[in-house]
Amino acid sequence: MRAHEQSAPEDPIAYLDDNPALVGQRFLGLPVLGSVAQLPEFAHDAIVIAIGDNATRMRLFRMLVERGERLVVARHPNAVIAPDVPIGCGTMICAGVVVNPGSAIGANAILNTGCTVDHHNRIGDHVHIAPGANLGGEVTIGDGSLIGIGAAVMPGRQVGAWCLIGAGALLRDNVPDGSTAFGVPARVMRRK
User: Fold this and answer.
1) Global confidence as pTM
2) In which element (H, E) is residue 59 found?
3) Distance of alpha carbon 121 from its chain centroid, rounded?
4) What is the pLDDT of residues 34-81, one digit of tens each?
5) pLDDT at position 5, please?
6) Burial classification of residue 161, based on how many CB atoms lie within 10 Å of its CB (0-12 exposed, 13-18 middle, 19 or more buried)
7) Do residues 98 and 116 touch, judged by C-beta distance below 8 A?
8) Residues with catalytic annotation?
9) Strand order in the sheet with 134-135
10) CB-hemisphere CA count at 13 Å for 89?
11) Where are the domains of the chain?
12) Residue 87 phi/psi, 5° resolution?
């Protein structure tokens, strides 16, 4: 679905969390009702998964999709997204995010506070672009990768699947699947 076609008629009603100490507490005016396993007990229309760990978020996403749950895009009203941008289900877009024309955002991704995704980017499924990260034009981020807080990815670069790009890194080169890169300029330090 394109950004301009998305509307959010759903209103958030509650949180679920597997930490039993949080049950009964309220956050942003909404209660924590119980654990994820208790989801079928609560009337709901749709779900958004807001877990920062990409692998955990992916496992939960797949389990909920298999159960037939409907995952929706949670988009902050202060995010600016070009009208032609397709956004996959279950993606969370935080305040101050900018996504420019020609880009595409995968399913179950997190575009965190104040990150920028310039023109013609391809953001894979289960990706997390951390707060303040900046992606130049025509960047590709593979499934499951994390672009750390304040990192910058130069135009035309490719980050493989399940990579970790460190906070504040300046990525000038492509990064192969399963790599960890950090520094200025960023260098690949580990490969899985």
Assistant:
1) 0.91
2) helix 54-66
3) 14
4) 999 999 999 999 999 999 999 999 999 999 999 999 999 999 999 999
5) 52
6) middle
7) yes
8) 119
9) 80-81, 98-99, 116-117, 134-135, 152-153, 170-171
10) 11
11) 3-66
12) -130, 125
